Amino acid sequence: MFKKDMTPGSKSKVKSSAQRGIRAKVLESYPLLEPYIEEILPKKEQLDLVKLPDRVSLYTLGSTPLFFQHMDDPIMPHLTLVHKYPDAFNRLRIDRGAIRFVLSGATLMAPGLTSPGGRLPDDDEDEEGRYGEDELEAGSVVVIEAEGKDTACMVGVLRMGTEEMKKVKKGQACEAGHYLGDGLWGLNLG
């Protein structure tokens, strides 16, 4: 979605009533953010809306990007927020071979997640329980981590459920919403 560099459009202040709605939607979508919500979306701070090309809305606090949304799609976290609160989102891990494709904006294919280096929820290889125990449905927003790396490299939307991925092991698994090095990552909000 953000393959090219972009320039931010108009910036406007979000009304307090709309800000409450966004806060409620964020908590509904990402219940694990509840302990951090006051740090992320403080009630007394002014949330800004930055219009981006292709009908994308970016919500920022000062010059810090927090969430973005394409029209009526799910509200998704910006990678800077994911890096600050990595345990507050559903996560999956790709193997080393898929990294270069993800960082070029390609749709993530199931073999990148089902191979020995990948991790899905309820995975026997996942000793710490980092990737959760509940299977994720198609349409879920997920954070993609890379094998051997410390921080997330992509936020996307699942095209197929994780249970189905384990069975078929092929096909399109996750659509890239925002990844390291894309136009949204390089956006200058200063």
Automatic annotation (TrEMBL):
SMART domains: PUA (SM00359). Its main location: cytoplasm. SUPFAM superfamilies: PUA domain-like (SSF88697). Keywords: Cytoplasm. It comes from the Eukaryota. The keyword Cytoplasm applies. One of its GO terms (molecular function) is RNA binding. GO terms for biological process: formation of translation preinitiation complex. Gene3D superfamilies: 3.10.400.20. The keyword Transcription regulation does not apply. One of its GO terms (cellular component) is cytoplasm. Residues 90-181 form the PUA domain. It is found in: Cytoplasm. CDD domains: MCT1_N, PUA_MCTS-1-like. Residues 113-133 are annotated as: Disordered. Involved in translation. Belongs to the TMA20 family. This is Translation machinery-associated protein 20. It comes from Melanomma pulvis-pyrius CBS 109.77.
